[in-house]
């Protein structure tokens, strides 16, 4: 089985300089690619000089995570794609259990390893932790991380288990699956596109797994941190996109409740004097309304599958019942 580790880069020379050596050192049985989203720094020159054995794919524009990978992966022919953030440090033998799972279980189409925090290596990292799930209203959460509560790693998630979504920070997917799903939805630009991809995979009958015996360390927020209102905008908007396209059953009640919950979140931003984040939520909703005709058309074309959620409302469970861990 041939595996490609594909790192998306945009003006990230410093991140490549810091983290690419670990990928090269510990990925001897993989082909490594850096897909560059039309960087204006000297990333390309740095790669050519320092890492001549790393394959460079030059995209013609910065289309974000979604379009960047869609364009780059047209030039990659390995059996399995590993989509790896540029701010991740990998560990020895990180690929071994991943490849073994793909080889032993043909129905496994998507895999995520254990993702720990590079800045606090005893704890899970926000974006993915030990595998992702979603509630009835489209709020994402993880084993090891629910909202802002992040668990310490005590080997409690060293298992292999089915999950609903895998983090885009380190996502393995069979080439055949990625092509069958027509890749990422490019209207997302960034954030939530991997959850949309995994939801479409679930609805089409594919299986996603978490492998706790493979570990990586993720910085998180290196390209767009949590205090950036653009991140708030993309997360709220793209979450609504994803629900509309993929949820099974009656859509209106779910969207109605979700919009109310988003409104509460917006008011929380307002009363906390986070004006830019409050405006980001409003803009996200207006953008959702503009895109609704297209989303409803996509909804008609995509397959649906029941039982996508294990928890009806993670908001109620976390904020009202005070269940802070998975």
Descriptive overview:
This protein is an alpha/beta fold and 326 residues long. 40% of the residues lie in helices and 22% in strands. The strands form 3 sheets. Strands 1, 2, 3, 4, 5, 6, 7, 12, 13 and 14 form a 10-stranded mixed β-sheet that branches. It has a two-stranded antiparallel sheet with strand order 8-9. A hairpin with a 2-residue loop joins strand 10 and strand 11 (149-150). Helix 7 runs parallel beside helix 9. The longest helix is centred in the C-terminal third of the chain and has 27 residues, at 275-301. It is globular, with a radius of gyration of 19 Å. The chain starts with a strand and ends in a 6-residue tail after the last helix. The model has no long low-confidence stretch (mean pLDDT 96).
Brief write-up:
The chain is an alpha/beta fold and 326 residues long. The chain contains ten helices and 14 strands. It is globular.
Shape: globular
The total strand number stands at: 14
In angstroms, what separates the terminal alpha carbons?
A: 34 Å
Strand content: 15-25%
Quote the average pLDDT.
96
Considering DSSP H and I runs of 4 or more, what fraction of the residues is helical?
25-40%
Low-confidence stretches: none
Largest sheet: 10 strands, mixed
């Amino acid at each position: 089985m041939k595996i490609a580790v594909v790192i998306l880069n945009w003006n990230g020379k410093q991140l490549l300089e810091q983290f690419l050596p670990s990928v090269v050192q510990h990925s001897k049985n993989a082909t490594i690619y850096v897909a560059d989203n039309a960087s204006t720094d000297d990333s390309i020159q740095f790669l050519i000089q320092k890492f001549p054995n790393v394959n460079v794919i030059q995209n013609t524009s910065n289309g974000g995570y979604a379009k960047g990978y869609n364009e780059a992966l047209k030039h990659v022919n390995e059996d399995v794609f590993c989509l790896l953030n540029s701010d991740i440090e990998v560990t020895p033998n990180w690929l071994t259990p991943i490849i073994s799972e793909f080889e032993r279980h043909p129905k496994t189409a998507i895999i995520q390893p254990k993702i720990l925090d590079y800045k606090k290596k005893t704890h899970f990292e926000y974006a993915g932790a030990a595998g992702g799930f979603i509630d009835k209203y489209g709020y994402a959460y993880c084993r090891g991380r629910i909202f802002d509560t992040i668990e310490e790693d005590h080997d409690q998630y060293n298992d292999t288990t089915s999950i609903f979504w895998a983090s885009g920070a380190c996502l393995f997917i069979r080439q055949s699956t990625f092509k069958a799903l027509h890749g990422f939805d490019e209207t997302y630009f960034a954030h939530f596109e991997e959850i949309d991809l995994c939801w479409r995979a679930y609805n089409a009958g594919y299986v996603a797994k978490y492998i706790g015996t493979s570990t990586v360390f993720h910085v998180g927020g290196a390209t767009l941190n949590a205090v950036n209102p653009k991140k708030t905008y993309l997360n709220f908007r793209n979450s609504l996109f994803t629900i509309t396209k993929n949820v099974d059953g009656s859509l209106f009640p779910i969207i109605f409740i979700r919009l109310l919950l988003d409104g509460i979140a917006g008011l929380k931003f307002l009363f906390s004097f986070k004006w830019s984040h409050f405006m980001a939520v409003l803009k996200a909703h207006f953008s959702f309304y503009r895109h609704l005709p297209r989303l409803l058309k996509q909804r008609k074309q995509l397959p649906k599958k029941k039982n996508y959620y294990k928890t009806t409302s993670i908001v109620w469970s976390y904020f009202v019942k005070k269940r802070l861990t998975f």
